[in-house]
Request: fold
Amino acid sequence: MATLHLLSHSPFADSRLASCLRLLAADDALLLCGDAVYAVQDGTDQRQTLERLPAGIALFALEEDLDARGLDALPSRLQAVDYAGFVALCCRYARTNAWL
Reply:
């Protein structure tokens, strides 16, 4: 049963991103929103880790949060979604896990 993992906290503030990545299964997805989008900044260890995720794990980021933080050099495998896309992702996956 595939899970959509929602992460909104900065990857530089705590270990939630690392904990989440350890639990991702083959057909899961990760949606970065809020300060979690900083994980896709060029030259960071977090971005390199995201780029090395297995191909079966989908990677998304909330478009408005990327824009608000001036992030536009995105990994090729990352798909930016708007709020309607966010809702669609929640409906597509059997479970949703918010990393609060």
About this structure: The beta strands are 3-7, 29-32, 58-62, 78-81, 95-99.
